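Problem: given the chain below (566 residues), write out its structure.
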Amino acid sequence: MAHATVPSAEQIIDLYGTGELAAELARYHEDSEEPFVQRCIELHNEKKINLVEIPTQPGFKEITGHDFFTAQHFYCEAIPKLDADVAALMECCQALVEQAGMDGAAGQPNEAFRLWCQNNPAGGARVISKAREGDSLAKRFVTFALQASESMETAADFVQSYDDERRLFGMAALGRMPMADESKARQATQVLEPFLAAGDDDNVRANALSAAFDVLKKYNDVDEASDFIGAATDKPGPATLHALAQIIWLHYNLMSSQTIEKALVALQAIQSDHKGTLRSLDFGLHQLLAGDNRGAIIDFLTTKLRDDKITLEDFPTTAGELKRGNRRHLYEIIVRWLLSGSQTLSDNVGNLIAFEDKNPFDASIVVPSDLTAVHRVFLCRKAIGILFTRPVTCCSILVSVLRGGDKEVIEEVVDLLFEPMLVNYSGKALDYLRTIAVEDPAHASVQMALERHQAYFAGLEKPGPIKELHPSDYQRDVVRQRTYDEMRAAQKSAEQQSVLFSVVHRSTLLYGKRSLTYVFDDDGGRRPVSLDLHSVGVSFEMPRQDVLDPVGLDFMLRVFRVEKMQ
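Solution.
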């Protein structure tokens, strides 16, 4: 599609005069040979238009979505180069930030304001002076002015002299300032360290901790990092816990294994409604899994997930890594959680194995040798109760127990492998069991279960078709209609949750083998794009007893799920 022509200086002035410049800014002609933004900056600095006042006008408030962020990007480019009154510029930046709402890019005008203060030291000094006087707008932007000044002494004075939000703004500026050398960095951390004690306000502690680690990363002092974590983990409040989670995520390379363990112990206090903290911690745990702290991470999850208000779904990134990672490690976690005696931990095992997962644990995996016969049978029953709908994975856990060669449990485990597993599933689970090699220690026991399965189905087929048990045409129609309604409802629900349906045009094709769509090229021409149509589907095996004896099957699985060791 051809690019729109950049307005001339006269046209920009006319648009400004008619109040239509806001809409033009949302187009932001950044690809033109003579940048639109530079032309607007020159007109502003020549006092022919006033870019600073536009974001506070009603017309600008009507710009939404992608158009707004295009205009915001325009201002981020323009603000550092504008000749403007600092108070009016702060109001402009405030309007841009507030209109962006909770979007991740909302704070970009603040960085533009910092660059402006860096280019206009007198204006930055005025912001600092007004903030000292208590001006509310200046206090909101003083962090960026302090950062631009690169005066550690001024920022430290804000931290030490005030007990309101200006202290927090001074801490933030101190953490973001460049440090000329290690001695300067140590001076900054010495200013922040006293505010990490348990007696201080929780928000102050959190901000001091975050700022301290922003300084520490500039010279990588692991010992001092350990001291700071030690202070912060003494009776932390919600804000300090959030800062700890952020540090585990963003600054884990500054922390020793002992320091990480200390932080994780403190983070056991996270509550289920601390969604932001849980999210940050999830990112941090995911990164730590790749290092030497895997054991500490599993210990943390094992303890924390006993709280039924928090599940593995609160740690989606970490859970994903556990699923994709080493299968032996995954097996060890499953065994540990199933044998824990905790119902909530056992339920979380279901989040470690995807419903569509058809990958067994391989032949090298054997049940831990220190488990008693009672524990091994208990493990099998728990695995069936929790993972029954993942038959391949479930059967591979039972095979791992058989692979242990404990004669006391072989008969009972073979019984479980036959019923309920093989009685209910004769698809992928049966195929997996047939692949157990002769040299596998579990081979003989698995063959016993397979022989019983073969005899069982031979007996079922012996009487032949029993017409009296066949459903009527009416019953079949009812089932088909119910299935259609359920699938249609699932499709509607999926469409409502799709991130793509809101940004694409949708067409329903009733029949045909391919579709033809016309797209626009950069020169404005149209060209056809064809797409061959293919069938798309998904299938899964339903347990037989869910049809023949749903109540009995449900009761058995409930018993297996909730039973505990004596």
